[in-house]
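#structure-requests
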Amino acid sequence: MSTRHVGFPLLVVFLLVFWTVPGFARSPAQTQPMKVAVFPSLESAIRLRGPLDFCGEYVPIHLPEVRERLEKELLLMLWDRAQVILWLKRTGRYFPYVEAELERAGMPDDLKYIAVIESALKPHAGSSKGARGVWQFIPSTARNYGLVVNRSLDERRNFYLATRAAVRYLGELHEMFNSWTLACAGYNMGEQGLKKQIEKQEVKDYYRLHLPMETQRYIVRAIAAKLLLSDPVRYGFDVRPEEYYSPMAFDRIKLKAKYPTPVTIVAKAAKTYYKTIRDLNPQLLRDTIPQGEHILYLPQGAAEGFAKRYHPLIAKYRKTLAPRTYVVRRGDSLTAIAHTHDMTLWQLCKLNKLSTKATIRPGQKLVVR
């Protein structure tokens, strides 16, 4: 009985202290008054004002089918207001760079909305078809436009590198089709497939072509995104300028790695964290940076003195590396073994004094790194 009587007053005292000590006060965010949401009805929001254009090309909303498709996409986007708010905030981080690249190439500013509908401006976005990054490149197209895609690196995930590739690709598609809407349609479904449909249907107008459903929605979704993001207040979105996400600030360096280099060493040389390096360089898929020459992004200011800090760190690390051996198994090849151990075929053969066409047998021991 006595224990219960002693414990109760102590609990009361603790609660009183909790609510009165300044350190336990509610955070300012919790005490700020909330605004009552006020935004247009869905019916009024889709009463479209004309004329409309996309990339300077007229949008024929006088055609009942086109108007219906655009109204549908607007309604779907407005229904998910949280998603649109995130789109708006992310434009602060990504649009300035896209706009600059488009202006440099002399291309329409509206093309930036393609990135929104492709990935919601998420660098790690992926699709079931193997597309990745803000611009949703598939591996083959990415490689055609200079992006590295392998087991160690995937430059589709690097927003800056992928944006340059996307601008080049869209520019070439426009030269091919002489229309920005058709260029965007080709970006979505592939230029060869679009060419075949144009030849078969004898039509060069995107809005009058019968295309796969995804492509029929594609440009219309971009137009809907343009309407929302270029005039958010009209649709009831009150995102203040200071609430947009800021563009990333970073330094760029060129790293020549003679051997696979741990990301942790780069982080130490940059006086930052492993996570920071991985976040700034989403193209890195492993804990090590593969052999070769790489452009890496570091926190702003970290490039100064980086080399002086990096060289002793990497020298110390290499001293810890002892040669490892790999026992050849049935079905192995020199190329496959080299790839598994992040080596080139030439490196593997040099270490083992073999020719690149040498025959290997199960049970044979090879030196690997």
